[in-house]
Design a protein that fits this description.
Layout (H helix, E strand, L loop, with lengths): L21 H11 L28 E2 L2 H6 L6 H9 L8 E3 L4 H14 L2 E5 L18 E5 L6 E5 L4 E5 L4 H8 L4 E2 L12 H7 L6 H4 L2 H4 E8 L2 E5 L11 H5 L8 E8 L1 E2 L3 E9 L2 H13 L6 E5 L1 H10 L4 H9 L10 E9 L1 H17 L3 E2 L3 H9 L5 H9 L1 E11 H22 L4 E9 L3 E11 L5 H18 L18 H20 L17
Parallel strand pairs: 2-4, 3-4
Antiparallel strand pairs: 1-2, 5-6, 6-10, 7-11, 8-9, 8-10, 12-14, 12-15, 13-14, 13-17, 16-18, 17-18
The protein binds flavin-adenine dinucleotide.
The site of flavin-adenine dinucleotide has 38 residues, from β3, α6 and β10.
Amino acid sequence: MGIGGRRWNGWGLGGERFPVAATARAWLSERVGDGTPLPMIDEADVTVPPARPLPDLPCALARDRSARLRCACGLSLPDLVALRAGAIAAFPDAVAFPTSPAEVAALVHAADASGVALIPRGGGTSVVGGVTVRPLAKPTVVLSLERLHGLLALDCISRLATFAAGTLGPELEVALAPHSLRLGHEPQSFEFSTLGGWIATRSAGQRSTGVGKIDDLVAGLEIATPAGVWRLPPQPASAAGPEPRRLLLGGEGRLGVITEATVRVRPVPELEDGVGVVLPGWEAGVAVCRSLVQDGVPVEVMRLSDPNETAFGTALTRLSSWQRRALRLLGMLTRSEHGCLLLLGWAGGAQEVVLARARAAALWRSHRGVSLGSSPYRHWRRDRFRHPYLRDELLGAGWGVDTVETATPWVKVSDVRVAVSDALRAAGAAAGFAVAVLCHLSHAYRDGASLYFTFLWPLRSGAELTHWQLLKAAATHALLARGGTLSHHHGVGTMHASYLEREIGATGVTAVRALVAALDPHGTLNPGVLLSGDGA
Ligand SMILES: Cc1cc2nc3c(=O)[nH]c(=O)nc-3n(C[C@H](O)[C@H](O)[C@H](O)COP(=O)(O)OP(=O)(O)OC[C@H]3O[C@@H](n4cnc5c(N)ncnc54)[C@H](O)[C@@H]3O)c2cc1C
């Protein structure tokens, strides 16, 4: 436990857990076998080398062991393996806690002038190495946005709210609630990630089918760069040349430090409800999802699990006896069957919700879908922010677990799912172990959707990282080869930097490099992130 009660080497709060149900353990054992639990050393036993000397910087700095350890890593699988083993590649020489945009700007300027690298850090929940400290020749300071938080301005007429960049998800929604407003951006990391982090990574929340990605929600922002402070006030739309707000989204701390942002907010809905529907197969589920968005049926949450994810989810959850009967009827509790669970959620006026649900029901029935009622949706809503605790439990029980995510046009959705799943299983088989691959479709658009893969494998002592690397590379190559995007919402970080050119081309990389060079000519901000071979 530490700052705010958060774990130093895993997800969330020290007292919280989400144990792996015996049925889920059995499901995994049967499919991939048992592995070697990943041990976890005590925080006190981690060797933290002395910090290097730093020039005078105009900001409060923490240089103690605990602050440096807690800001050394993010939450990717390699981060977790390193933290649990106490084998951390590099530590920051200090952690800076600026308390105002002016202090951020002064710090960025001073660091740039004195050859210090800065790693902007929001909630530290990056799963792609975005905040992992690299061994750099320059002294390195983590710039924590922790003390820049809260609602700064609210324009109820335009429905625009300005927040400091370090505001965490719950604080943001709590500040809007008295005005009967909400943002509705709820990534699974909601409790511990920040507005600045969401913008810097182009994050997507679980309601994105209805409310959009953070890209759609940001109306204006302010960013401190070595080249100066760049303020882009909110505009509903503009034709004043290329759109610089969009250009700064996904900067991952490489283009500057976001100090505040104005977001588009909406009224708190009168009613929220949802349903779980079982479809007789993946293709039927995809057809329902596509028709819903293309026919303009309002849906806020849409999440279609493939048969493996449906079966694993069922093994994790306690279902009522009639739900079990319904699932068994569809044959989905056995491995050979193909039932897929679709969760749909609505938020709005009572009448709107009833109408949207009726339109959706007509669609799922036309694809032989069977409703399980509201309770699967309510269960999912209740537990969704607890699911991340499972990852630590699984590692401690001997199973590696990681995710890759992408998006692709509808015409390629099924092909990408098969290609990535096959590539993961084949990579495991070639190295002598089995891999379970779960997939869901979420974040649907008129022209396509995101696919999110979770892969699990038995850990072998000493080979945790090499096996993970094999799997991660196989999945990434497969999704790129089949026309998926490198990332729909986790971002590039250091982990995907070498693949960026495959997605945006050599000209695209040249343009991004030029933008970085214009804003940060000395490579002060987050070197090594976004662009490979860049500083680290
Ligand atoms: C369990 C779990 C579940 C997750 N679920 C989701 C999900 O549902 N959807 C999703 O999109 N992502 C998800 N993520 C990934 C992660 O939470 C997101 O990328 C999130 O947007 C990161 O926010 P953060 O505040 O933690 O940023 P950090 O991890 O601190 O930083 C991420 C990147 O942004 C940069 N950065 C952070 N703040 C600023 C700033 N103010 N100015 C400039 N650069 C900055 C950092 O330098 C880094 O490159 C999940 C991660 C975990 C561990």
